Request: fold
Amino acid sequence: MKVPSSLSQAFDEKFERLLAEVALAEGLLPAVEEIRAKRFLTRSVAPHVERLTELFNRLDSEKPDSGLDKYWRKGSNPENLRLAYFLSFMPGNLYRMASVWSELSRLGFRWPADDNSESVSFRAVEFGAGPATGSSGILAGEAHSPVGLPANGNFALIEQDRGTLRLGERFFDAFRQHLELPAYSTRPFHRKLELRQGWLPSSAPSFHLWLMSFVLNEFHESPQQLAASLLKSWDKHLEPEGLAILVEPALRLQSRRILELRQAILDQDQSGEFQILLPCLGHQACGALADPEDWCHEEVAWWRPPYLRMLDEMTGLDRKSLPFSYLVVIRSRRPREEILPGLARARTTHRLVSPAFKVGSDWEFYTCDTTDGKRRSRLKQSQGEPIRGSILVNASVRGDVQASRIEKLDELI
Reply:
């Protein structure tokens, strides 16, 4: 995925200090300088990071480990546990959401215009918000890759842990000021998500933005059940031209689940109102699902905050790049080329779903397109440098799904 350099470099010493100040105000950090104190990180943060990493990775199994929920509720030091998540996992997840927003902007998506622009407002809701991770990701995306988000808006934050919810309110407002964005507000809702109760009460309003960051991986329901519940809620609570953005882990099982969820949404959407906008550029059958050992994910590089580089060294993690799976759904009947005008001239599109490797004078990679699904392809290095997430516009392809060559193309974006 191509992310503007200003966004990939936005998590610098100023961002680090902002995190430290928020953590200090919440009583999670004894002093701002402790965010880089090796002794403090080693004793109070790193052990929780290691344990949480182990538990998160166990989710890539047929029977997700229930130990994660117990660990959240019965940790020996809930303040340090909350701090470990805030410092170690939140910034990367924030950047993932911002990268999806950036991809929308890159392909020309713009917030629907209104003649009375000064009075236009929007409503967003984030489920399993944690410390307002996804909502803050939208702020970062809009600051560095704007789509024209109105200057008036509110983010409803739904989270089951009161302390984390309070932390999210404080961080969101501090981060908004740090980015010099309009005075968007938040509304906290302390609530545990139960699918049988529905995503929202029937009396809840409709929203223009529906955000879910690393939430679906905590549900045991099938992709078909999740699709049915989401479509039912979107029908009532997602505005026309509204966006739903779902970000999930890049682990094999969880990535395949979001691909299966995509297919289930397409199968169950009888109204035809909901389009899969990204990352797939069409409603074709998913090529990755054909092989039970295959899956599809995105990856973005960034400059980690200095303290996070220290923490990664302590815990043996390597987060110079961040993998994830995602899905963007829009409630719209407009044609895709109108929603994403950056693809208006595209008769065909092939998106890279793997890294590109140099093979002789070629690049070799896997692509997914709107007709044949996944295929292995080659492109002359002289035609450009593709990366995972690049889009080949109007490519002339010779060969079959086993091995093909891109003879020519109009554009590499």
About this structure: DSSP finds twelve helices and 16 strands in the chain.
